[in-house]
Write a structure and sequence with these properties.
There is one protein chain. The protein folds into two domains: 3-516, no CATH class; 530-726, Phosphate transport system protein phou homolog 2, domain 2 (Methane Monooxygenase Hydroxylase, Chain G, domain 1, Up-down Bundle), CATH 1.20.58.220. Helices cover 77% and strands 0% of the residues. The protein is built from 25 helices and no strands. Helix 1 packs antiparallel against helix 10 and helix 7 (185-207) packs across helix 9.
Length: 727
């Protein structure tokens, strides 16, 4: 098997992996509304979405041109260079999308593949211009107009989707309110007819555009008679909604499920090219070259400019892989949960930490709202407040939907309309961008971003949007780097990059499994049937103890071993633990009302333990900071006697933390008290040895001051552990 045959094989192997990681990320586009509103069981939702994906994959044959000639000019590249571009793109795409999936962040697979193609083609073109200075310029190799359209679409997607989603949801809520008794049959039938008209038109224009199923004549007929077709569609759907209403069918729920199918089909028919377009283009290139007899570095790839029809069997197989991934991928659940969490109506765990930008945005909106309140008549304010009045929910209800079916239907309808409108204007709006920002806009209009949650939600939105920008930059840079490496080192680079990809995928999988297990700890149950909320709090406490124990152990080890790199890593780890502690405290408060009365005394005692836990982590963090400062500032190393005392203390704390995490049983309590009692004597010995070093002139005042600060934190930590043992 030659080098290029190996590349073709790798392209299809990577395509299978890319299909999995790609649908894991893009699933949020069509699952968010249905799962967030809990309009049906997850099984039913996945069946409907999976069927939409499978059907949509069969209609993808007409959109394979993007990978062939949409970003670069194939007639400027020889066969060998084209294969380098394709392989670099697929390697970069797999790694990039998997990284976003691991952290549960939705991104655009379209943007990633476009900027990967752009980065790889520019890199190869740059190398070609170096080899032939008198030849074409770098930009001659690139479809500049196509790249500009994609870039402009990013900004348009974010702004337009958010604003329109906010406006439509505001007036929809004013019409429906949060009270189901106000949802008259007439309003539901009218809304259902309008929503299904928008969704069905979206399905035809966006989901089936360019496929062999829809001919150009059919497409032209739809464009020329759009108004008439929509009027007919409204009447048809209104009659169907009336019939369904007679059978007591939830019309808003039907809209949500219909929209889920439509978006899933559109995703598969349009975005499948992001995953299989490059491998199929690589296969076409190899087939053209293998029978030509022309050297690979001389044959220009004009063949890629010719129209192509996708292999139905391959498309069906790709659809089957995506449908299977929907059912099995835990990362798809993580990505979906991020969007649902940011748009939920009630309180819950906030996943993002606020920063100066998010705080500034919230302050601006608060000030604007207060100014608007002064300008709007009080009667109007009262009327609007009544329309948005809703039943007070308990602070933490696991069974409550994130939002209602009205908002879910608005999400799907507005996203469909915007994408159809943009398509008619030939504006490249991203399905991911539109779906996410519409969801954020509708949640804002529904007053889901209250004063206590707004700063966290805004921080989350900025994190996701920032991730989109990072996607474009990282995709460009990573693909360009891989292309240069493959072009320069050939087989060696391919082998090393494949090994890198495998290791990265394995590492991210393990990380995600650990992360998911920690998140699922809140829903576990114990053998003795203890209340799961109380058990979850216990689990949080044990987890926090483990982090604190690691900080203390590492801080003392750094002092003994004088490891500068370890000191820097520890200081970074300490910062990440602060957010975890805040989330634990918030979780404790939200679960207070759900605990059974018979274990309430235990829970109130846990409040004291939680306070102690916070103090321990604070002391451990201060200890780590002082230890790091001592080592990084190159202060005098501790004497042998001080090292001996530190080693003894380190061992004591290992035992104490381990037994404390095991629970306050009688036997373990007695075992813990003994070493903790010995700690006091060891701390006194350590203090005396440090002071002796000062008296004898072996340590400076600065160094001694730092060591005494470390001793004070150790003493505080000992007292906090003693209190925790008692409790």
């Amino acid at each position: 098997m030659g080098f290029f045959e190996l590349v073709v094989g790798l392209l299809f192997v990577l395509a299978v992996v890319d299909l999995s990681v790609g649908v894991s990320n893009d699933a949020v586009n069509f699952l968010n509304s249905a799962i967030g509103s809990r309009v049906a069981s997850r099984r039913v939702i996945l069946i409907i979405a999976g069927f939409g994906v499978l059907v949509g994959s069969l209609f993808s044959s007409g959109i394979m041109e993007v990978a062939r000639k949409g970003i670069f000019n194939p007639d400027m590249f020889v066969f060998a260079d084209v294969m380098v571009i394709f392989l670099a793109v697929m390697l970069a795409d797999v790694l990039l999308l998997d990284m976003f999936n691991t952290f549960g962040l939705p991104t655009s697979t379209t943007v990633s593949i476009v900027f990967e193609l752009l980065g790889a083609s520019i890199a190869v073109a740059f190398l070609a211009t170096i080899a032939d200075p008198g030849g074409a310029a770098v930009l001659d190799y690139v479809n500049v107009a196509g790249a500009i359209k994609i870039t402009s679409g990013i900004g348009l997607s974010v702004v337009i989707a958010f604003v329109v989603g906010t406006i439509v949801q505001f007036f929809s809520r004013m019409l429906f309110t949060f009270q189901e008794k106000n949802h008259t049959s007439t309003i539901q039938i009218a809304w259902g007819a309008i929503a299904f008209t928008a969704i069905s038109y979206f399905l035809f224009v966006k989901g089936l555009k360019g496929t062999s199923f829809v001919t150009p004549d059919m497409q032209a007929f739809v464009t020329q008679n759009a108004l008439l077709l929509m009027l007919v569609s409204v009447v048809f759907w209104a009659v169907l909604m009336w019939v369904l209403h007679q059978f007591k069918v939830d019309l808003l729920g039907a809209v949500v499920l219909g929209g889920t199918f439509s978006l899933a089909l559109a995703f598969a028919s349009n975005d499948l090219v992001n995953f299989v377009g490059v491998p199929l283009a690589g296969l076409s290139s190899w087939q053209a070259w293998s029978g030509s007899g022309i050297p690979p570095d001389q044959m220009l790839m004009d063949v890629l400019k010719e129209p192509v029809t996708g292999n139905t069997l391959i498309l069906f197989g790709a659809g089957a892989i995506m449908m299977t991934t929907l059912w099995l991928s835990s990362k798809a659940k993580s990505v979906t949960q991020t969007t649902v969490n940011l748009s939920r109506q009630d309180e819950g765990e906030e996943l993002f930490s606020p920063g100066p930008v998010s705080r500034g945005v919230v302050r601006t909106f608060v000030a604007t709202g207060e100014a608007a309140a002064r300008a709007i008549p009080l009667q109007w304010q009262t009327g609007i407040a009544e329309r948005f009045a809703r039943e007070k929910a308990r602070s933490y209800d696991l069974e409550r939907p994130a939002f209602d079916t009205l908002r879910a239907s608005v999400n799907l309808t507005v996203a469909s309309v915007l994408i159809v409108f943009a398509t008619s204007l030939q504006l490249p709006l991203s399905t991911t961008f539109v779906s996410f920002m519409v969801a954020m806009g509708t949640s804002l209009a529904d007053r889901a971003w209250g004063r206590d949650a707004a700063v966290y939600r805004v921080a989350g939105v900025f994190s996701v949007v920032g991730g989109w920008l990072v996607t474009a930059i990282a995709a460009f840079a990573l693909a360009a780097l891989f292309a240069i490496l493959i072009k320069t080192f050939n087989e060696l680079a391919v082998i090393l990059l494949v090994i890198l990809a495998v290791l990265a995928l394995v590492h991210s999988h393990r990380y995600h499994v650990r992360r998911s297990r920690m998140q699922e700890l809140m829903a576990t149950s114990s053998p003795d049937k203890m209340d799961k909320d109380a058990l979850a709090l216990r689990g949080h406490f044990i987890s926090s103890l483990g982090r604190t124990a690691e900080i203390v152990d590492e801080a003392l080890r750094i002092l003994i071993k004088r490891k500068r790199k370890a000191a820097r890593r520890l200081q970074a780890a300490v910062k990440s633990n602060e957010g975890s502690t805040r989330r634990t405290e918030a979780e404790f408060v939200r679960r207070l009302h759900r605990v059974r009365p018979e274990i309430e005394p235990w829970l109130m005692n846990q409040f004291d333990v939680l306070a102690c836990e916070r103090d321990m982590l604070h002391s451990a963090s201060s200890l780590a900071s002082l230890a790091g400062e001592h080592v990084l500032n190159e202060h005098s190393p501790p004497t042998a006697a001080v090292v001996e005392s530190l080693s003894i203390l380190r061992e004591h704390y290992r035992v104490a933390f381990a037994e404390l995490a095991g629970g306050p049983a009688d036997s373990s309590e007695r075992r813990s008290r003994a070493p903790l009692g010995e700690v006091e004597a060891d701390i006194d010995r350590l203090t005396n040895r440090v002071l002796e070093d000062l008296y004898t002139g072996e340590r400076t005042t600065q160094s001694t001051s730092l060591m005494l600060g470390i001793i004070l934190e150790v003493r505080d930590l000992q007292g906090e552990i003693s209190r925790a043992v008692i409790w």
